[in-house]
Amino acid sequence: MERTAAHHNHPITPMNLYNQTDKSTRMTAFAIILVAVCVTFLPFLGCAPFFTKGEPREAVVALSMLQSGDWILPLSNGDVIPYKPPFLAWCIAVISLVTGGVTEYTSRLPSAIALIAMVMAGYRFWSRRVGIPAAMIGAVVTFTCFEVYRAGFACRVDMVLTAFIVTGMYSLYTWAMERDMSRLPWAAILLLSCGTLTKGPVAIILPLLAVWLTVMLCGHNLWRCTWKMATVAFLALIIPALWYVAAWQRGGQAFLDLAMEENFGRMTGTMSYESHVNPWWYNLVTLIGGLAPYTLMLVIFAVCLLIPQLRHSVKNGLSRWRTADNARAFMFIAPMVVLIFYCFPSSKRSVYLLPMYPFLAMQIGLLALWCARKASGVVKSYTGFICIVAMLTFIVFCLFHIPALTSHHTAGLSADTLQAVSGFMEPASWWKWAVAGISCLVGGIVFVQLFRSGTSTALVGLSAVMIALYMAFGGVYQPAAISYKTDIPMARDIEQIQPDGTIYSYIVSDMMRFFTADFYIGDRIAPFSPTTSPVTGLILIGDDDVHEFHRLYDGKVRLEATVKRWDKKSCDIGQPVTLYRYAIGR
């Protein structure tokens, strides 16, 4: 009787199980996840050059901050006001002050740190609510979902914003659901403020909306919850408002128009130009792609539902979900809020849905554990497929380095195709061979063990193969695949031709700049203007734009000589580019 009473007073819950777990076990699990996410990202951030206009556009803002000393609203590329608030640029600039300069590595490091912090916060949050094993699997799934992985490797605001939104959700949930909204959640307020300084008020709207809806569905008082959330929103706006006022004083009406268009025009579809306009179902398509490679596991699971016994087990599982605790309800509500919210604006991008992935990853982690108990074939077949992918990619990489094969099979390829595969045929350093070889070795070992061990071992092996494969992808395969796209050769030639001073550019589209080349030569490319540019100098013009240049400046500006031409299309403007020497006047 005493044992029964004790059991009744202390029900077995994930939180109780977590508290009863040995501290060394909890610390070991935490350390394993931390090491796993760090080794997947930190060693390889600088391996790939900038090859899209988005990354150098953000990095050059930090570069201009350091060069000009203007940390409020620095101009880059000659005349470009930053499109986003400055938090990411501040992070890059501070890190670069310590390391001695802005590089690809220092520019991407804030995104990687944000991802690591988000993964570890998610592990800590969910391990107390769904258990350590599920939280560990969910953490690995989070940073190995391709969309999340890609954002963690990019010098863009998206991963930093996502980290603040998601950790803000965790903090607000703990305050609202487990502390009865007592006192003020200063940690959450600071997270929402930093998120707003990263990209705008959406960092306040999404966390508050998700937690408010969760609290309402759990039966809390409407008015008390609403005014508490409104207070948090007001306090979270104070610090960002100080920057917006300072930037408005510096940039005037031009900054105000840009801020209104980026924050409100994008949401209401009233922008002065079309930006990523897509139908509502675009979000669903990108979500399916972003969950890769776990989309395949979900497909295998769906096929297995045709088995009657498994279908019966799923129905029983779903009935238990309906009576699940508040944390599991939050696991469903938060991503649904993000998805529905971003279905309304006409502007839609895959990265907008990034706050969904930590919650979906945790659901995939729970599904994987359930399959390990009820449908081991799902886990083993999926793990086997990933092992085969890891081994095949290494084999293909090796084949590219056999001269007899490459010379025979590339003889009839076009120049563009040869250029695209050239990165794979370049000699690789020893450490790249080691990283790629480890991914193949891990894949082979796990594949063999699948036939000898249980499903729990398959889950551990799956995590190991995923991490090894992504290490090889980030350090070896991706840099080889995209090396031909970058404008670094153009930047190096410009440095040799004119080591100092401004290089001018003419691009028909007002939105475009030579962001990549500008970053690599130290923010020295500025738009050409016949009234402010010197009477003679060097100017970059794309092949498609040179005719418009002649038409616009006929008789006013002449292109006296061709200094250098690059036949490869620029990764920024999508055209072959020529460097001319110009002269103003007759």
UniProtKB/TrEMBL annotation:
Topology versus the membrane: Multi-pass membrane protein
A cellular component annotation (GO) from this entry: plasma membrane
Source species of the chain: Candidatus Amulumruptor caecigallinarius
Keyword Cell membrane included in the entry's annotation: yes
Superkingdom, taxonomy of origin: Bacteria
Any single Pfam family the record assigns to this protein: PMT_2
Domain Glycosyltransferase RgtA/B/C/D-like as annotated: residue spans: 84-243
GO terms classed as biological process: lipopolysaccharide biosynthetic process; response to iron(III) ion
Primary localization: membrane
UniProt name for this protein: Glycosyltransferase family 39 protein
Residue ranges of the TM segments: 29-51, 83-102, 109-126, 132-152, 159-176, 188-215, 227-246, 280-307, 327-344, 350-370, 382-402, 430-451, 458-477
GO molecular function: pentosyltransferase activity
Record-linked InterPro entries: LipidA_mod_glycosyltrf_83, RgtA/B/C-like
Keywords associated with the record: Cell membrane, Glycosyltransferase, Membrane, Transferase, Transmembrane, Transmembrane helix
Subcellular location(s) of the protein: Cell membrane
Coiled coil, from the record: none
E.C. numbers: 2.4.-.-
